[in-house]
Amino acid sequence: MATDHKERSAADVDVSTVMSQALLTVDASESVLMAFELASRAGIHHVPVMAPDGRCLGVLGLDKLRVWSIGPLGQSRPPVGELIEPAVRVTQKATLQEAAKLMSAHHTDVVLVVDGDRLVGLLTWRDVVGWVAGLARADHGAPHSRPVLFSIDPVIALPDRT
């Protein structure tokens, strides 16, 4: 489905109109193997990692999860909370142009969209390219007006690493 945005530039479009809102999140204590399996089966490329209090700590890409999930590490694999790096964040009112500039400057393919400390969406390079190409996301125009976060509580208890 094509979107009509011929008259609008990336400097005039809020990230909230382009971002992904239906997100699968994992707890920071989740195992790398489970996070990788969930992301793979869901066909997603980025997994927000959440603190117990609901704050988003960062995001892990499928490639990083894949690397950490292979090999002879056994139970020594760290939980996903130990693998995240600081993520670029923008508000819902940031423009697509501002977010794209941040993505380029920080050499990242994903930006967390936040409202204060609350995660409300993700903007990825696929979202930006899709908007430029005039393609609508399948989850845009969905009946939900707020972000839908599917949180997965830890499935595998990892041994205490202290």
CATH 2nd-level architecture: Roll
Instruction: Flag low-confidence runs.
Output: 140-149
How many separate helices? 4
CATH class descriptor: Alpha Beta
User: What is the global morphology?
Assistant: globular
Number of domains: 1
Sheet with the most strands? 4 strands, mixed
Percent strand equals 15-25%
End-to-end separation: 52 Å
**Rg computed from alpha carbons, rounded to a whole number of angstroms:** 16 Å
Number of strands: 7
Average pLDDT level: 80
| CATH topology grouping | CBS-domain
Query: Strand pairing plus helix content: what structural class?
Result: alpha/beta
Helix and strand succession? EHEEHEHEEHE
> Numbering strands along the chain, what is their spatial order in the largest sheet?
3-2-1-7
Task: Tell me roughly what share of residues is in helical segments.
Answer: 10-25%
Structure description:
- It contains 4 helices and 7 strands; from the N terminus they run βαββαβαββαβ.
- It has one domain (15-149): CBS-domain.
- It has helices spanning 32-42, 62-69, 96-105, 125-132; strands at 22-27, 46-50, 56-61, 89-91, 110-115, 118-124, 148-152.
- The chain is globular and about 55 Å long.
- Residues 140-149 have low confidence and may be disordered.
- The longest helix is centred in the first third of the chain and has 11 residues, at 32-42.
- With 162 residues, it is an alpha/beta fold.
- A 4-stranded mixed β-sheet has the order 3-2-1-7.
